[in-house]
Design brief:
By secondary structure, the chain is α/β, with parallel strands linked by helices. It contains 13 helices and 13 strands. The strands form three sheets. Strands 2-8-7-6-5-3-4 form a seven-stranded mixed sheet, sandwiched between helices. Strands 9-10-13-12 form a four-stranded antiparallel sheet. A hairpin with a 6-residue loop joins strand 9 and strand 10 (about 290-295). The radius of gyration is 20 Å and the shape is globular.
């Protein structure tokens, strides 16, 4: 059954949002300069604002979260180094092996023994092992955390667990990088400042183009010297832009949308409850991602598409992501369509 007369409800990701008129106006009127030759004033404003929000000295705008992460890993890792990250973390499974290919590090997954996407400090300590200087062993030099954890259904690492993990890593001499692509969602879910979730991290990546609604952009945040090194690495990777203020203006406007994420979380809960009522295997979401277990993921996604609801595969399940372009009535309509599709 299809719904040719109704618009498609796109729940594939919170990256499908489109700039609203206020954001487009900000982009059109942005003050710009050449961000590679010297400075773009709007880009500088965005970087300073982002560093302030994260409680770190400096920030660097980059085109994508993947670039932010690979820059960090490339600067931290050397040949023969190993890094640790929660199982199914974005840096392990969604960045096409750049951690090994470009950064040159050997990845090692940590089991989520504290809950979805969350390793315990004890399991981290075991994974780090003794600080043996033998040339026969990999050097474990970096811990990468992810908050929220995408493949674990947008699960949140609470601040006390993050602090324990960071402290354990630091005691063993490791650096800590936080992939915070959806850190805004975690902060809203916990009703905490974003900086409270970055304590102990040497660097943090954040994304403006997911739930906040900007069309392009992420940032790498850390110490001033590190960010200057990161600026050179961004240029090596082709990430330097000229009049980037047009994009930075959208990101600045996106930061004003942070409180709206609470509605996305409520819509995700609404969706999960509705799916459970019609017999789908779902867990209550912590943020804006709903994972549903089904017998045949590709077939289910195809049937949903025919019904006018777009979803995506993730971790062997069907993933639905709520976002600012989907309203509560859209969720109700999506549930109606899903129920109809299930009866085919």
């Amino acid at each position: 059954m299809t719904f040719a007369t109704s618009p498609t409800i796109d729940l594939r990701s919170d990256t499908v949002t489109r700039p609203d008129e206020t954001m487009r106006a900000a982009m059109a009127s942005a003050e710009v300069g050449d961000a590679v030759i010297d400075v773009d004033p709007t880009m500088r404003q965005l970087e300073e604002r982002t560093a302030e929000l994260l409680g770190l000295p400096a920030a660097l705008w980059v085109p994508s979260g993947t670039m932010a992460n690979v820059i960090a890993l490339t600067l931290y890792l050397g040949r023969g180094d190993r890094f640790l990250a929660p199982r199914d973390a974005h840096v392990l499974v969604r960045e096409l092996g750049t951690s090994a290919w470009l950064a040159g590090g050997m990845p090692e997954p940590l089991e989520p023994d504290a809950g979805p996407g969350r390793p315990t400090a004890a399991s981290l300590a075991r994974a780090i092992g003794p600080r043996d200087s033998s040339y026969l062993l990999l050097r474990t030099t970096l811990l990468c955390l992810e908050n929220t954890h995408n493949a674990a259904g947008g699960s949140v690492i609470p601040p006390h667990e993050h602090a324990q993990l960071a402290a354990t890593a630091k005691e063993a001499g490791l650096k800590v990088h936080l992939d915070g692509a959806r850190l805004w969602n975690a902060a809203v879910a916990l009703d905490l400042p974003v900086a409270a979730l970055a304590v102990g991290a040497d660097t943090v990546s954040v994304c403006y183009s997911k739930g906040l609604g900007a069309p392009v952009g992420s940032a790498l945040v850390g110490g001033r010297e590190f960010i200057e090194q990161a600026r050179r690495m961004r240029q090596m990777l082709g990430g330097g832009v000229r009049q980037g203020g047009v994009l930075a203006a959208a990101c600045l406007r996106a930061l004003e949308n942070m409180d709206d994420l609470a509605q996305d979380h409520e819509n995700a809960r609404r969706l999960a409850e509705g799916l459970a009522e019609i017999g789908w295997a779902v867990s209550a979401p912590q943020t804006n991602i709903v994972l549903a277990g089904v017998p045949d993921v590709p077939l289910t996604i195809s049937r949903l598409e025919n019904a006018g609801v777009l979803a995506s595969p993730m971790a062997g399940k069907v993933r639905f992501v709520t976002h600012r372009d989907v309203s509560a009535p859209d969720i109700d309509e999506a549930l109606r369509r899903i129920k109809s599709a299930a009866g085919q």
